[in-house]
Amino acid sequence: MFLANADVRKVARLARLAMDETEIEAARTQLSGIFALIAEMQAVDTQGIAPMSHAQDVAQRLREDIVTEANQRELFQSIAPQVEAGLYLVPQVIE
Amino acid sequence: MLNSSLQQLGSALRAKKISSVELTQLYLDRIAALNPALNAYITTHAETSLAQARAADARLSGGTAQALTGIPIAQKDIFCAKGWRTTCGSKMLENFVAPYDAHVIGQFNSAGAVNLGKTNMDEFAMGSSNETSYFGAVKNPWDQNAVPGGSSGGSACAVAARLCAAATGTDTGGSIRQPAALCGISGLKPTYGTVSRYGMIAFASSLDQAGPMARSAEDLALLLNTMAGFDERDSTSLQRDKEDYARDLSKPLTGLRIGLPKEFFAEGLSSDVGKAVETAIAEYKKLGASIVEISLPNSKLSVPVYYVLAPAEASSNLSRFDGVRYGYRAPDYTDLADMYEKSRAQGFGAEVKRRIMIGTYVLSHGYYDAYYLQAQKIRRLIAQDFTDAFKQCDIIIGPTSPSTAFKLGEKGDDPVQMYLSDIYTIAVNLAGLPGMSIPCGFGAANMPVGLQIIGNYFAEAHMLNAAHQYQLATDWHVRTPNGI
Amino acid sequence: MQWEIVIGLEVHAQLSTSSKIFSGASTAFGAEPNTQADAVSIALPGVLPVLNKGAVERAIKFGLAVGAHIAPHSVFARKNYFYPDLPKGYQISQFDLPVVGQGALTIQVEPLSGNAKPYEKVVRITRAHLEEDAGKSLHGDFHGMTGIDLNRAGTPLLEIVSEPDMCSAAEAVAYAKALHSLVRWIGICDGNMQEGSFRCDVNVSVRKTGAPLGTRREIKNLNSFKFMQQAIDYEVQWQIGTLENGGKIQQATILFNPDTGTTHAMRSKEDAHDYRYFPDPDLLPLDITPAMLEQVRATLPELPQARRERYTSEYALSAYDANSLTASREMADFFEAVLAEMSPSPQSSPASGRGGERENQSSTSAKMCANWLIGEVSAQLNRDGLEMTQCPITPQQLGGMLQRIADSTISNAGAKDVFRAMWSEGGDADAIIEAKGLKQVSDSGAIEALVDEIIAANADKVTEYRSGKDKLFGFFVGLAMKASKGKANPAQLNEILKRKLSG
User: By Cβ atoms counted within 10 A, which residue in B3, B91, B285, C237 is the most buried?
Assistant: First the structure.
């Protein structure tokens, strides 16, 4: 599996990971090695096999529509990087 | 006291031969003395632990004690414990004080156990050597130049070095069994859905499963009795009747059919490990078991499949670490995108970033079918292999890890070599089956070897029986590292 | 060549559950910021989603109401993207296997221009799926930063996707209104558009007749029908103008600015198109059993379309009246309650076998009732800014009054007085009629005497009338009404006057 630096850059951007060119180059080498390992999978004939998303064949359980949670804002925001007036603050969002 | 079983400790506590405060203090003192070298714990908080011990002593006096009341347990730092710093081995959560209890923590709290501290681990449980922890590598108590295995390396080390009575771990691709093997202790990964994942920081949701780590199968059974059980807060938690995992411990093994997967004894297995496992098989025969050769033809694909599925789920699970509501936020940034990118780049270590990159790539447009979907289909083939195998045998036995503990730094530069050290454990997670590792001898340089026991779905009691009977006949599990 | 407009809608209806779709936090509107953001809403490490049964039931209810296929097996997927109001870094939604499959909705279109007639149209619904809402970004003054409120994060939404079946703003608005009415009718969404409970994204493209589909632009987050119409009108003109000037349409997400009445493209997110959907490993497949389906079906009320048909066939109401009465379930229920009040009880009117007459009677009552509801009642509600549920007059009161019109106790003019009094002061019709002395004179003797007097006092006019000046009839009616202080039964008066004048 051949990866280009541009692929790595695109993935880093999608994953919101800042990477400089040296890191991108290093990642490309390592990821190429890993994808070579993963490539073993490609030869397997899986026609007609249902994908397995979960470890067991069970259906989703449903919760009754009841309010169970109390306000814990103070506790939760005590570990937040930046809050004001009960809001989490982030650099300006531009739409 | 340090070598007593949990059962014995419980009796001693109930008989007032020792108090929980004394026992807790004993371990805290040992941690103070040995942890600087071993680095098994990330966080201890003596005051909190002793307060829990005092409460346990009151309960012991009041006659409302349960099996684990007053017993000091080490918790892997992946479980949120209210008021405890919960780091998951990451700079990202270096200052994260959990505002709630994981289900597992809650279970131990209601049992009256003492939380002795939070054990070191590979960052976000991604690793097989404990070297990816932001808080430094854990040392193997049998050789401090060797790794303890990972990701539950801190817990394995703490149990082996008698820095706790028992510990918890989590296992996504072998993270309980492999460090248990490398540190010469016993560890069990239950059937997926047996222990609630609520409050356990997610790595790969469809594979993650918590389990106990201890010195014997008997201890594991007692711990699992506390950890297991339905939890409505986890949609994947299974609704089953409560069971006593110790119920079958004393059954004889006569007639037990043991399957040996030929793929687990092929190229790649180091000879010292192979020899120890062969000796264990001979012991099982003596105990009355019969041996059948089986095949798990697709198990060789489990590493590639795992390195598609686990990173894919992880890349999404770790998106919540964005520096907005908790966790690390980079000190300097120019705008929102920059804040995200820098916080995540600085907060996550190299291995975590690598897996996020793999996962993001395999899920991205144009690659989904070739990677993710293909891996999910092969996952089914791997699970089907086990279903077929269990038509011929009751349990499956083989090595836990292809080699004994390797040296610190030995595989650091080569992720692929590191990934291959989980070759025998991963298939079990993909299938959702229970698996365990127990000590079965020593290999080169006198390092412990682990024997893996794999059972059918919900066969934990059966596996524990097989392990316990073996431990009655052997003494590998009671050996202690030099200087401990 | 004519331009053809192609419109499809994606509507996000907030489901009226008490708790969030994946946690037990409250969904109540208007709470202090982040006080309803529980551990799951803020995506603390380790927390997990558990699906709300109430949300599933509402989705099923909708599916049944539009005659759709309800998937026995559907799957929740993660839609991955980073945004501060999306705490997990992914939205839990449905992708490949939605809970509601293909369905259809019949709409009544009232063309906006000219004298085109109202018509009916069937709009196909592609699918509807469950998903969670995001939080809100507040751009107040926080030292140049944005504040994030996650109270809304995790509120259940049903995203209803239509086929591009609409070809005018009028049709799009009619569809949106019909959908809005339906979700409220079946009680799955409060429909409060100001609070964002019902939000519309409109996909608009234009093409020359017969040409392949043009490139579409998506107008996001329209929260009023008026804005929807304005936005579509502007967008269509803009697209046609662009194409006629040789330009090209780029696919884009756009916003409508109600202040300027124009649309503009949103800042594009570079990776907006790579959401890396995959099945959520924290949630198992949603299986809807036949038993659950039947349970929900049993709670489904008679639907607007069925009622419309019943109103036209049973009561012989016009399509217009039937439509207006079924604009909301409250209106339709009110109508039927009034009608029940007016219909003679079985005891007082033993079955006589003259079914035709009774049907005729009930059709007359229905028509009268419809007129009053669509006319006076709606106008007053509108004037006072009230909803049907807040109407100060009960169906019993209104029914009592209409009964008095029907039995000629009061005239239509008198009824308006009664209605006004009822609206502002309450009380039942008979008491108001009594207090205000609005009872009609239906005593034919009294009216005849009155008419005789007028004829005697206006001999010249009578002569003129008899010699062919028919128009004078109104003059006599006016005099007679005046003499009776407006209380003479108009029908009776007419009949007597006519008879006596013709001499």
Answer: B91
Q: Which chains touch A (3 or more CB pairs under 8 A)?
A: B, C
Last residue of a domain, one of C436, C463, C480: C436
**What pLDDT score was predicted for residue C344?**
61
Domain that holds residue A9: 5-40
Q: Does C426 touch chain B (CB under 8 A)?
A: no
Residue B366 to residue B361: CA distance in whole angstroms: 10
The DSSP call for residue A41 is G
**Contact by Cβ (8 Å): B409, B187:** no
| Residue that terminates a domain, selected from C262, C296, C330 | C296
pLDDT tens digits along C440-453: 777 778 888 888 88
Is residue A74 domain-resident? no
Cβ of residue A53 closer than 8 Å to a chain B Cβ: yes
Neighbour count for residue C387 (Cβ, 10 Å): 10
- Specify the pTM: 0.92
| C56 contacts A62? CB cut-off 8 A | yes
Same domain, C281 and C317: no
Surface of B (196-255) touching C: CB under 8 A: 197-202, 204-206, 232-236
Is B118 tagged catalytic? no
Closest Cβ–Cβ partner in A16, A68, A94 for C82: A16
Asked if residue A70 belongs to a domain, the reply is no
Rounded Cα distance between B131 and B137, Å, is 5
Catalytic residue among B90, B128, B129, B151: B151
Q: Tell me: do C331 and C193 sit in the same domain.
A: no
Q: Are A67 and C24 in contact (CB < 8 Å)?
A: yes
Tell me if C52 and A62 make a contact (CB, 8 A cut-off).
Answer: yes
Q: Into how many domains does chain A fold?
A: 1
Q: Which domain holds residue C227?
A: 3-296
- Would you list the DSSP string of C144-161? TEEEEE-SSTT-EEEEEE
How near does any CA of chain B get to the CA of C91, in Å? 10
Active site residue B175: yes
- Determine the Cα–Cα distance for residues C37 and A87; give it in Å rounded to an integer: 11
Q: How far apart are CA C235 and CA C5, in angstroms?
A: 10
Q: What pLDDT is attached to residue B265?
A: 96
Distances (CA, A) of B23 to B18, B54, B56, B114: 7, 11, 11, 10
- The complex scores an ipTM of 0.97
Domain count, chain C: 3
The 3-class secondary structure across B25-62, one letter per residue, is: HHHHHHHHHHHHHHCCEEECCHHHHHHHHHHHHHHHHH
